[in-house]
Design goal:
Elements (H helix, E strand, L loop, with lengths): L3 E18 L4 E17 L2 E17 L2 E18 L4 E11 L2 E9 L3 E12 H8 L10 E15 L7 E15 L4 E13 L2
Antiparallel strand pairs: 1-2, 2-3, 3-4, 4-5, 5-6, 6-7, 7-8, 8-9, 9-10
Length: 196
């Protein structure tokens, strides 16, 4: 017989999620404030709509902390094919400290790949919202734009570290920290982080 369940809504609140993989040096910690799940399920395929507000405690790759102590939110669709064992997030937007990032990802039995990017983020907002040093300084004022492109790709195996490559740039940037009267102008930067 054919199984078909329409899930109207499942709501989860106050969930602590921690994942550590000592073999690859990966550590993720978050507190999910609320997570609403909706969708239709079939035996072979389903799309799950997920809406959540959460707090990222830490995302760490080996000794590099990629993100810590930030709010996040998302509203996305997850396509699952149980027959082929594929999990896919088509184009979605996630918000980290209220900054929008585009997300696309896919996991199949052989490999995984996630792309996270942002275009034309205001440098002033990036400095104020993503800095972990804000308790020591006042809010930045400034101008200019940031672009960000992160790719995570590799074999779908617990003992294999995925490749992480992040390209970023700043164009026509200037920042000023009023209380210290510190000013940086003419900021043009191209950068890359990779664990290869």
């Amino acid at each position: 017989s054919k199984f078909n369940l329409k899930l109207k809504k499942v709501e989860l609140t106050d969930i602590h999620f921690v994942y550590s993989n000592l073999a690859t040096g990966q550590h993720y910690g978050t507190k999910i404030h609320n997570l609403d799940l909706r969708g239709e399920f079939t035996e072979k395929q389903f799309t799950l709509n997920a809406i959540s507000k959460l707090h990222i405690d830490e995302i760490k790759s080996e000794k590099v902390t990629l993100l810590a102590n930030k709010s996040a939110a998302f509203n996305l669709s997850i396509q699952v094919d149980q027959e082929k064992d594929i999990f896919e997030i088509p184009d979605a937007t996630i918000f980290i400290s209220n900054l929008p990032f585009k997300l696309r990802g896919k996991i199949d039995p052989e490999k995984l790949r996630f792309d996270i990017s942002a275009r034309q983020l205001k440098l002033e907002e990036v400095a104020n919202k993503l800095s972990n040093q804000l308790d020591q300084i006042k809010a930045f004022e400034g101008q200019g734009f940031c672009n960000f492109d992160l790719k995570i790709e590799g074999a779908n195996k617990k003992e294999v570290l995925p490749t992480v490559v992040c390209n970023f740039d700043i164009k026509n940037g200037a920042l000023r920290e009023p209380s210290q009267k510190t000013k940086f102008t003419g900021i043009h930067l191209n950068g890359k982080y990779s664990n290869e």
